[in-house]
Design brief:
The chain is of the alpha/beta class and 139 residues long. The protein has five helices and seven strands. A five-stranded parallel β-sheet has the order 2-1-3-6-7, sandwiched between helices. Strands 4-5 form a two-stranded antiparallel sheet. Strand 4 and strand 5 form a beta hairpin. Helix 1 crosses helix 5. The chain starts with 6 loop residues before the first strand and ends with a helix.
Length: 139
């Protein structure tokens, strides 16, 4: 049986706390590799050049903030599932992000690395099932 391919996660944040959470999640899970982009511009270049299974996107970046960050990302790469990171005092933005295409939102500082790994698995499975269902609709 072939070894399972590692999940490729792009972490788009300038927060050291977010990076530590991703590092711990990758270490615990063992089949996840992550890369970091600090700005939206850098993230858009990375997803154009490399394959990523999922994106963890902060809405507080040096070159973009708020829901516009997600809208700009999705306009460029609509097929990549996105988990949005929101600040605790901007929790209402998470609901808005779901309306604009994010599959999940996490509040910064309120999740563990184990929870992050579980959320990544959940979003990827949800995306896989949605693609499978859409294929059956048009078959």
């Amino acid at each position: 049986m072939a070894a399972k391919e590692a999940i490729q996660l792009l972490l788009v944040t300038n927060s050291h706390e977010d990076v530590r959470s991703a590092e711990r999640a990758a270490a615990k899970w063992g089949c996840m590799e992550y890369w970091q982009a600090v700005t939206l511009a850098e993230a858009l270049k990375r997803v154009a050049a490399d394959r990523f299974d999922i994106v963890l996107l902060s809405l507080s970046l040096p070159d973009s903030s708020g829901i516009e960050t997600l809208i700009r990302f999705n306009r460029t790469m609509p097929s990549i599932p996105v988990i949005v990171l929101t600040d605790p005092h901007h929790n209402h933005v998470g609901s808005e992000a779901l309306r604009h295409g994010a599959l999940l939102h996490l509040v910064r500082g309120e999740f563990s690395s184990h929870m992050l790994a579980q959320c990544v698995r959940y979003v990827l499975e949800r995306q896989r099932l949605a693609v499978q269902a859409s294929g059956r609709m048009y078959a």
